């Protein structure tokens, strides 16, 4: 039998299916713009309207430079590179990220570098400000988690009722921190800030520790992970590193990504400790972006958006709506020239629940950790300690203050013993107070041990209340 030829209807149907397949395979809604101007770190693009926070790719001699939209004005879109950009030419074509881009007569997909998924797989990992792996370990095949910190009704937040065992005797006894508290560590350069952070990361009692190294020296990232933190503490930690040579956008995102990771674990019912080093570098990154966008400097070179971004970051942490979970946060604030009235420091003191001041005078004398007990305060300490503990800490603080006021008279020989019973007691207990407030970087003092030492210092029973 002769094979029957296909009918005209079948041929038309076959052609229709072919055209449909070609249409489905073709790029859809491809838009592009042109690079018009480069001003500092800001790329000005015409013809490509975008939403703030969305990604784009700019053609360069090295391939594609991934950028993020940080603002717009009229028909001009402002982009900032995620990574350092080079070999970008005038009129370069710009495409939205994750869309096809035309090269010659064909289209190729532009894919954004995928972050690691926020979840259990992040524990023990070191990532950059965008969640991309830095440790060279396999990334797995999991899809990225689009998790973002939820906005919590302030009336739904769990109250702070439990103390956090920080593993540092002077903090446990004199400046007790509560689970869910946000504490600022105010320090100049070279006063032992990194060592104190390492002690907190290793010794604090928490399920997960999230560390954001924002704007610090790149050399310190590996040293902190291997030497200060150590392999024993790394398995329960997530390290987000955005060093000083990263773009201001990456430094800004580093603090935000670390906060997102901490809030994820908190919402899973974990007790989390979040360490951001430093909040000042976060503010400086936002200042660079804001000034590039044309915001006016209003306070020592800082534009208004800096003082809006800081509370926005800090208010995401703390206790959430899930019972028996918390984020206890430690933010370092750099004091330029040891100036405690720096605008960032002033703003931080107003939005945090306490502050630890590290003294250069104590550090120069070999007193570590160099916490100035007189200038430091924990605003939630009365809520997480009993009356006996509070009274003992207040007594030691009074003795420290009395000694500091009278030490010059004693050194000059102008003080006659017995004329001031308070100063006599401070002089008698001063060697013990100094020993009590100092601690080696490898020592660990639990909450119960710290209270025993506090009560023993004042001649108490040597036990907890």
Strand content: 15-25%
* Tally of separate helices: 14
Structural class: alpha/beta
Strand order, main sheet: write it out.
9-14-13-15-16-12-17-18
Q: Distance between termini?
A: 104 Å
Determine the oligomeric state from the structure. single chain
Low-pLDDT sequence parts: 460-465
Biggest beta sheet attributes: 8 strands, mixed
Give a verbal description of the structure.
The chain is an alpha/beta fold. It is 36% helix and 20% strand. It contains 14 helices and 18 strands. The strands form four sheets. Strands 9-14-13-15-16-12-17-18 form an eight-stranded mixed beta sheet, with helices on both faces. It has a six-stranded antiparallel β-barrel with strand order 1-2-5-4-3-6. Strands 7-8 form a two-stranded antiparallel ribbon. A hairpin with a 2-residue loop joins strand 7 and strand 8 (106-109). Helix 6 (248-267) crosses helix 7 (279-292), helix 8 packs parallel to helix 9 (343-351) and helix 12 (387-412) packs across helix 13 (421-437). It starts with 7 loop residues before the first helix and ends in an 8-residue tail after the last helix.
Could you give the topology of this structure?
Layout: H1 8-25, E1 33-39, E2 42-46, E3 55-60, E4 63-73, E5 76-81, E6 93-96, E7 100-103, E8 106-109, E9 126-127, E10 163-164, H2 169-174, E11 177-178, E12 182-187, H3 193-203, E13 208-214, H4 218-229, H5 231-234, E14 237-242, H6 248-267, E15 271-277, H7 279-292, H8 304-314, E16 326-334, H9 343-351, E17 354-357, H10 360-364, E18 377-378, H11 381-384, H12 387-412, H13 421-437, H14 447-457
Parallel strand pairs: 9-14, 12-16, 12-17, 13-14, 13-15, 15-16
Antiparallel strand pairs: 1-2, 1-6, 2-5, 3-4, 3-6, 4-5, 7-8, 10-11, 17-18
């Amino acid at each position: 039998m002769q094979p029957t030829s296909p009918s005209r209807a079948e041929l038309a149907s076959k052609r229709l299916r072919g055209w449909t397949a070609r249409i489905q395979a073709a790029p859809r809604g491809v838009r592009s713009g042109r690079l018009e101007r480069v001003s500092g770190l800001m790329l000005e693009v015409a013809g490509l309207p975008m939403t703030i926070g969305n990604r784009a790719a700019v053609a360069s001699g090295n391939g594609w430079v991934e950028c993020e939209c940080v603002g717009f004005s009229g028909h001009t879109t402002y982009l900032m590179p995620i990574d350092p950009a080079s070999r970008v030419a005038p009129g370069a074509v710009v495409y939205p990220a994750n869309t096809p881009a035309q090269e010659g007569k064909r289209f190729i997909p532009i894919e954004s570098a995928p972050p690691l998924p926020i979840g259990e797989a992040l524990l023990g990992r070191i990532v950059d400000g965008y969640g991309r792996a830095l440790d060279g370990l396999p990334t797995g095949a999991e899809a990225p988690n689009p998790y973002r910190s939820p906005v919590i009704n302030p009336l739904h937040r769990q109250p702070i009722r439990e103390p956090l065992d920080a593993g540092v005797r002077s903090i446990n006894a004199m400046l007790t921190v509560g689970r869910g508290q946000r504490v600022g560590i105010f320090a100049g350069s070279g006063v032992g800030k990194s060592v104190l952070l390492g002690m907190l990361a290793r010794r604090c009692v928490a399920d997960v520790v999230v560390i954001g190294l924002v704007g610090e020296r790149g050399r310190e990232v590996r040293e902190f992970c291997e030497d200060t933190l150590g392999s024993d503490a790394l398995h329960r930690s997530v390290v987000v590193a955005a060093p000083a040579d990263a773009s201001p956008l990456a430094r800004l995102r580093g603090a935000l990504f670390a906060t997102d990771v901490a809030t994820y674990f908190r919402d899973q019912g974990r007790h989390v400790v979040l360490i951001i080093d430093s909040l000042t570098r976060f503010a400086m990154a936002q200042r660079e972006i804001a000034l590039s966008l044309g915001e006016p400097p209003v306070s020592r070179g800082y534009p208004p958006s800096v003082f809006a971004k800081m509370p926005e970051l800090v208010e995401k942490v703390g206790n959430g709506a899930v019972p028996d979970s918390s984020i206890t946060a430690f933010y370092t604030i750099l004091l330029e020239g040891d100036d405690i009235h720096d605008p960032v420091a002033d703003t931080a003191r107003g939005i945090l629940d306490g502050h630890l001041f590290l003294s250069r005078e104590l550090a120069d004398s070999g007193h570590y950790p160099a916490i100035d007990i007189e200038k430091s305060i924990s605003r939630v300490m009365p809520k997480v300690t009993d009356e006996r503990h509070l009274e003992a800490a207040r007594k030691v603080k009074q003795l420290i203050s009395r000694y500091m006021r009278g030490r010059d008279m004693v050194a000059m020989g102008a003080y006659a013993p017995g004329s001031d019973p308070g100063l006599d007691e401070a002089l008698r207990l001063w060697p013990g107070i100094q020993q009590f407030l100092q601690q080696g970087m490898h020592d660990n003092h639990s909450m119960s041990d710290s209270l025993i030492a506090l009560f023993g210092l004042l001649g108490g029973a040597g036990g907890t209340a």
